[in-house]
Structure formats: C-alpha cells, structure tokens
Design brief:
With 276 residues, the protein is an alpha/beta fold. Helix content is 22%, strand content 22%. It is built from 6 helices and 9 strands; from the N terminus they run βββαβαβαββαβααβ. A 9-stranded parallel β-sheet has the order 1-2-3-4-5-6-7-8-9. InterPro entries: At1g61320/At1g61330-like, FBD.
Length: 276
C-alpha cells in the first residue's frame, strides 16, 4: 500500500504473509482478523503527516501484534509514547509476544526521538525479540533544533531483552543521543552476542558535497569525517550487561551485508535516500 491518507484497512486473506504500508494513516478502522498467517509488517510514514489524534498508529499496531517481523518509523514510536498520557490504562501495554525481529527507521535522531524509542520498548514489550536493527539518519543533527548535548533521557528500567542476541545500528555517527542509545542497549541486554555499528557513507569528493548542498541539505549536516578510533575508545568504556558481547564498528564500505533486516529494500521514497 502507498497512500497519502488511508482511512480503512480490512485484510480478509488467510494466506497473506506480508503487509507493507508507506503513507499517512488517518483512520480508526483497522482489521487484520482475516490474516491469520501474517508474519511480517512494514509501516512507514516518513515524510507524511502523523501528529494528529486521528493518526491512530496504536490501533494499527494492536492489530499487528502477532507478527514475527516488524519495521516501524518515528510515527509509530511517537504516537505510542505520546498517547500513553491520554489513553486509559486498558490500552497499555501492547505486547508483541511473537516478535523476533524489529527494525526502527529513524529519519530524525535527537533527545525527543530517543525518548520515543524508549517509550516504544517499554509500552510494547517483546519478550522473544532476537534481532534489533536501527537505521539512523545519514545526516548530522540539525544544530538549530538540537537539544543540549548534556541532556539525559532515562531509558526504561525494565525491558524484556532476555532473547536479544544481535543489534545492528546503521549510519552511526557517535552523537550524544546515539551513544546514549548504545549505552542503554549494552546495559540491558544481558545475553547480547553482537553489536554492529556501521558509519554512514562519506562523500568522496567535494563535488559530491556540492551536489548534496544543491539538494537543499545544509553543508553543516553532511558527515565528511568520522574518527573511528576515538569512537572505539568510547564504546570500549561503556558498561556491558553481557560478558560475551562483541562490539564491532565498521566503515560504511565494510558493512557486513549478510547481517541485514528482512525489510532491507523497503526504505521508502528514493528522495529520502540521503536522509536515511
């Protein structure tokens, strides 16, 4: 499905296994009761409006609570977190008890959006989650909208990470919020085996930077250099709940493509390529 304003979703197909949606969710009428075989779902609204009360990602998520593989973007994360304040207690938590693989497409990453990730992990517990993929934006945080580097966003005290074995974070730049997220994951996943952090692509030539600027991307947000050695030292000093976790930091061109999410090829519009 690719839709600007979807108002009704009914799936009556017992054999359907995948559901992929990119667009704006603007309705309260969802039903996946007829999709008993549904195993994976991709829900992305990057670049579309998602902040009104009518954008009911919570209801959609509840209908998809039985899937094993799920990809969501900040629209879902923020709606779940914000709605906790306004919904009755019966609506939460939304357990994802079959979920084994989760991918988060983060078109923006700052303290506010870090709090949405934490809120989602707390309110949508996934006790059998094995793989977590987080795709950060390739661009640096907007300095005009960034929060203070010293701001501390507290992660949830209890998260069911007992089965979490693998975490991969793409476009890792080592910003304050990114390091806080990695610190949280390392501190909570006591059976984690592998944490793979992949740096974003760096323009090879000045001409490439100019092309991005022509595309209305401020030059101050384009990553032109990453000190991997310094990042290695920071990562090595972080406390780790798992005694056998292996932390790997890679350049973009050395990314291990064998460790990719199921929805690797579904990164929304081509125009969002450099933002994601």
């Amino acid at each position: 499905v690719d839709c600007w304003e979807i108002k009704k979703v009914w799936v009556l197909a017992p054999s359907v296994e995948s559901f992929r949606f990119f667009g704006e969710i603007y309705c309260l009428d969802f039903s996946f009761d007829g999709a008993s075989s549904l195993a994976d779902a991709f829900i992305c609204s990057i670049g579309r409006e998602s902040s009104e009360p009518e954008h009911d990602y919570l209801k959609l998520l509840s209908e998809l609570a039985h899937v094993r593989i799920l990809t969501v973007c900040p629209a879902t994360l923020s709606r779940v977190t914000i709605w906790e304040e306004f919904m009755e207690e019966d609506y939460f938590p939304v357990p994802l008890e079959n979920l084994q693989e989760l991918q988060l497409l983060m078109g923006i990453m700052n303290a506010e959006y870090l709090s949405y990730i934490y809120g989602f992990l707390r309110l949508c517990p996934s006790p059998f989650l094995e793989k977590l993929f987080i795709r950060l934006p390739k661009l640096l945080e907007d300095p005009n909208q960034s929060t203070a580097r010293t701001e501390v966003i507290e992660g949830p005290q209890s998260v069911p990470f007992e089965h979490l074995k693998t975490v991969k974070v793409s476009n890792f730049k080592g910003s304050h919020c990114e390091m806080e997220l990695v610190k949280f994951l390392l501190g909570k996943a006591d059976n984690l085996e592998s944490l793979v952090l992949v740096a974003p692509p760096i323009p090879a030539l000045e001409e490439d930077v100019c092309k991005l600027v022509e595309y209305s991307i401020p030059e101050s947000r384009i990553v032109t250099r990453i000190d991997l050695e310094a990042l290695h030292m920071q990562l090595a000093s972080l406390p780790k709940a798992s005694s056998h976790v292996q932390v790997v930091l890679l350049e973009y061109l050395k990314d291990d493509m064998s460790l990719n999410p199921t929805h690797t090829s579904l990164y929304c519009d081509e125009e969002l390529h450099w933002f994601m």
